[in-house]
Amino acid sequence: MVFKPKAIFLDMDGTILNHYNKVSLHTKEIIDAIRNNGTYVFIATGRSYDEIEAVVPEGFEVDGYITSNGMAGYIGEEIVFEHSLSRELVEAVINKARDFKIYYELFPYGASRITLKQDKQYVLDEIRDPKPESVGINEWLSRKQAIKEEIDWAEELVGNKFSKFYFFARTKEHIKQWINELEQLKKEIDFSMSTSSLHNVELMVAGVNKATGIQQMLRRFNLSEKDIMAIGDSNNDIPMLQYVGFAVAMKNAPEHIKEFANEVTDFTCDEDGVYHYLKSRLF
Length: 283
Known about the structure:
Elements: E1 7-10, H1 25-36, E2 40-44, H2 49-52, E3 64-67, E4 72-75, E5 78-82, H3 87-100, E6 103-108, E7 113-116, H4 120-126, H5 137-150, E8 151-154, E9 162-168, H6 172-186, E10 192-194, E11 200-204, H7 210-221, E12 228-232, H8 238-243, E13 246-249, H9 255-258, E14 263-264, H10 273-282
Parallel strand pairs: 1-2, 1-12, 2-3, 7-8, 12-13, 13-14
Antiparallel strand pairs: 3-4, 4-5, 6-9, 9-11, 10-11
Helix pairs in contact: 1-10, 3-6
């Protein structure tokens, strides 16, 4: 029996985004067609809400967004839910990041991401050319773009509402050491972590992930997880793939991610895999 979803949740990086951080017009068109047929379509991404507009085609529309790995949910400009990291945790993490010389971006709600100016030199050093072979081109380009245009090199920490931390290291050994350090900090101040590559880790409020975000969005639309499809490709998608009624992994996903899926797309994110999958599955 063919699964007919009432709603579809789509990851961005490695799923609807190609490795040059763009959503194709074909993908936009299939999303439009699905929504016109009465099926809801949502984005469930590790990206912050403010990052999305730059990577989607003009006129791109969905029914809602779950951002920062479940930290916030939006319908248009309306905030459906929003979690925030504590100021105590933020300050403790920045101090430890400085000790470890780990690249970090702190994402305030409604403002540019922050890296403190005193940490600028070692942060810049982490993205010096040439690109390490094991770093994905999409992640490398995103970091270059952040350094060039998107980070606010702040003199001091301002505000009290923060959606997440993003950490990056040019070597896998460095990021592993940092994750181990965060595990130790969790014993003092609880939080959750998620990875989407071998070179990064993100930090959110304890107990928050894409699945918890989907759960909150489904309540708003009076939908059951049994009627939901989700498509993803990386570790931060695992809670989402486990939660929904029908899970799909991208062809470009690692093998351990595919183990959580009911089906795997025939094409990669660079080959419009989501477009081809949804067109063949639903039309």
